[in-house]
Amino acid sequence: MTTSRRAFLAALALAPVPFAAVAEAGALDRAIAEATGGRTPTDGGVTLSAPTVAENGGQVPVTVTVESPQDGTLHVTAIHLFATRNPTPGVASFRLTRAVAKPEVTTRIRLAEEQVVVAIAELSDGTLRRATASVRVTTGGCLS
Amino acid sequence: MSGLATPRLRVPRIARAGEAFEVRLLMEHRMESGIRIGAPSVPRDMLASMTVAAGGETLFEARFGNGTAANPFHVFWLRLDRTADLVFTYADEQGRTASATHRVTVA
Fold this sequence. Notes:
Chain A is mainly beta. Chain A has helices at residues 5-14, 27-36, and strands at 42-43, 46-49, 53-56, 60-66, 76-83, 90-96, 100-109, 115-123, 128-139. Chain A has 2 helices and 9 strands, in the order H-H-E-E-E-E-E-E-E-E-E.
């Protein structure tokens, strides 16, 4: 077989990587579009608290707080969390009702590497708000 | 056979009508996404959702993706107008469920 070095390298470059550490481009946009129904969120009105440096990427505490009175006039209906550089972008989605007294949810998430975490909140008036937080990860949480 | 652990919760037994009380939930589960980088994948074993209901009505619901950490831990705030039995139910991707019930007496 007379495979040239150039052809071999070209084939190597085109070969699909079995497990990419980062989700393919577009997966994040698709996940966000699916959660938000394609509407565009505005920045502000929501806070995403996360550590600047997380020693253990497998257990990163995050808190999402939305500016909302949580009364009959306006309340949070959903909070979505996305990881921008995990193998898959979806982290969690929360559905809230009027029985949720404070517009705040705390959870623990997994981060594979240093990345930006995105929180999107949906309010009962149909608006979408977005907040981001950058987290440095000492030990990755997804792979072992 | 449920196969899932029992959810652990810290919720007050008494609350005032309409006032916020804190709900802290811990569920033992390894949340195995099956994803391994540069190694053979392992069988996936993930929780899919958690719901909090009272009197058949859902108050709070979580759907978990791969990014939810093992032993999912959640904190949020609820309010009730009258005494209710809160039912916390976790379901995994195979459809198995585990739940815990906690009565909150509204004074």
